[in-house]
Amino acid sequence: MPTVKATREGLLGSMMASHVRVDLQLPFVALPSVRALYRFVRVTNALTKESTMAIVLDVGPWNTHDDIYVFGDARPQAETGIDTRGRATNHAGIDLSETVWAALGMVDNTTVTWEFLN
After folding, report:
1. pLDDT above 90 covers what percent of the chain?
2. What mean pLDDT, rounded, does the chain reach?
3. Which CATH number goes with the domain that contains 87?
4. How confident is the model at residue 11 (pLDDT cuts 50, 70, 90)?
5. Residue 76 DSSP label
């Protein structure tokens, strides 16, 4: 399981890649591969070991085709500090919805592990 920096999705009311709107109740994450959409993941707070399940409903953070990270053994491309379009990143490898953030007891952008369940 990769250990990566996690950030909040935010963007309340925005349309995600799955054509679902971001809300405060839906337990979802964003991973940087369109191939990950609609798959289920278990996410664990690396500090507290709290864990929860979620569905991948958005693509990101930063990149949209980082399949070698999502499905392989590579680190997230966004960790380099620059995304594939040349934008500065926050080094995150996964975005968490408000529900997932709360379930994990997150208080700041910190590390999590994640794995596919299906």
Report:
1. 87
2. 94
3. 2.40.40.10
4. confident
5. P
Range of the domain at 42: 3-116
Given a contact cutoff of 8 angstroms between Cβ atoms, the answer to whether 96 and 70 are in contact is no
Distance CA 88, CA 76 (A): 14
The size of the chain, in residues, is 118
CA distance 5 to 18: 23
pLDDT value of residue 89? 93
Angstrom distance (rounded) from CA 58 to CA 98: 14
What is the total count of domains within the chain?
1
Which residue in this structure is represented by tokens 């009311």?
A: 13
Q: Which of 36, 38, 71 is nearest to 55 (CA)?
A: 38
Model pTM score: 0.93
Backbone φ and ψ for 18, nearest 5 degrees, come out as -80, 0
pLDDT at position 10: 82
11 class by beta-carbon count within 10 Å (0-12 exposed, 13-18 middle, 19+ buried):
middle
